Amino acid sequence: MTNRPEQYDTDDSSLSLPHCVIIIPAHNEVKDVGFVIGEIHKHTRLPVVVIDDASTDNTIVVAREAGAMVIPLTVQLGAWGATQAGLRYALKNDYAYAITMDADGQHLAESLRDLLQPIIDKEADVSIGACTKRGSRARKIAWVLIKWASGLKLEDLTSGFRVYDRRAIRRLARWQATLLEYQDVGVLVMLQASGLVIKDVEVRMLPRRHGISKVFHSWMSVFYYMAYTLLLSITKRGIKLDM
Amino acid sequence: MVSIITGIIGFATAITIVILIRLDHLHVRYGLWWLVVAFVFALLGLFPTFFDGFARHIGISYPPMLALTISLLVLVIKILVMDIERSQNEVRLTRLTQRIALLESDLREALGKPLEPNHAASHGERDDGRNK
Lengths: 243, 132
Known about the structure:
By secondary structure, chain A is α/β, with parallel strands linked by helices. Chain A has 9 helices and 7 strands, in the order βαβαβαβαβαβαααβα. The longest helix of chain A has 17 residues. Chain B has 2 domains: 46 residues; 49 residues. Chains A and B meet through helix 9 of A and helix 1, helix 2 and helix 4 of B.
């Protein structure tokens, strides 16, 4: 018995990739998740799975009504914990590809085709939707620092708009990846250390429709993020992982 | 002499923490805390006279006692915080176990599957972290 959301037939007029699932981690996104799922359905018939990160609002109800499958977490795990739950679901149900998108409307469904192209063309194992125009000067300086510390050569380190192939899914489903607190640098370093090819694809992103960033909501949280990310980058430099 | 030892302890701690994080034995979050500790040790080791001067200034005749007392205080607070966090984790773990048990029993009933005698080990491994 496979536990999959409704699998649509492939159709030339809509984007399709066999055995691919869209994963959306969501915490209290009742205002935006319905819109995001609706937009996805306008562009593709790929199955959508929302990982509800112990929301206290009606995110689950809205997501279900919009046509997504919902996996509710009983304890709040954070964006990466919820994403990893989604990747473990993808692994368990034999998906070959997993796309991760945010529930807050920053990632556009119209970009899915561009995002999937390097994967379809077999040019990369992981594809990242990059939007380097967004972000303040401070963020850009932070990125330069992090790239220097970690050795990552990518353009957009924090974008959660990604496509992972099966080997990436398998690597990120492991317990070692559960130690990570954020879904960005640590994940990318782990993928690179596994010898996977990662490509940036420049895409348009919208500013957040509601609320503020969950990661960078205060100076303390920014400081902690930078200290955490720099320490992680430095300690994991040059590491090689067997696939 | 003591300050050299203190400095070496600081550097050794820092290197140990980096290795532990690299090998996935320690969360980066706790590594940050330990690195601060290592840094303080190294600092005391490199600038012993600064601390001695500070201790005498506030009226302590034997500065190492101040260093020891502060270290003990920090450790006590750290252990207390750890026990508080551990209490929360135990509650979470127990309730998650209960929840899974209830879910499994619902599922088995719905699927018409019987319960095996050695249910805890029925997946080929134990979930409580022990090896046998």
